[in-house]
């Protein structure tokens, strides 16, 4: 496997801590740093995947909110044309109510 040299500047206190860890573990500085960066990359990948999952959930929630606000806007725009007193007891038929509201808005749009 081909290797490359990477130069890194760190504070003197950190270098001393690394040297102590190397002595304690009985390994070279290069071996210790390879372990650190491999574990760091692995941890980063896991966190990145978690964040992507959370972003997906948020996107789905945002889509649902947008859909709900669209329905609310349609109902609000058509509210004057619908008789909610008659519709109120029939909450189960909410889909029909939305359809009726959309038709009213479409008719008003075509007229005006």
Can you describe what's shown?
The chain is mostly helical and 112 residues long. The protein has one domain. Helices cover 77% and strands 0% of the residues. It contains four helices and no strands. It has helices spanning 12-25, 29-78, 84-87, 94-111. The longest helix has 50 residues, at 29-78. The model has no long low-confidence stretch (mean pLDDT 79).
Count the beta strands.
0
Count the domains: 1
Residue stretches low in confidence (pLDDT < 50, at least 5 long) are none
Average predicted local confidence, pLDDT: 79
Termini, distance in Å?
Answer: 73 Å
Secondary-structure element pattern, one letter each: HHHH
Number of helices: 4
Strand content: under 5%
Structural class: mainly alpha
Question: What multimeric state do the chains show?
Answer: single chain
Features:
mainly alpha; 4 helices; 0% strand; rod-shaped
Tell me briefly what this model is.
The protein is mainly α and 112 residues long. The protein has helices at 12-25, 29-78, 84-87, 94-111. The N and C termini lie far apart (73 Å).
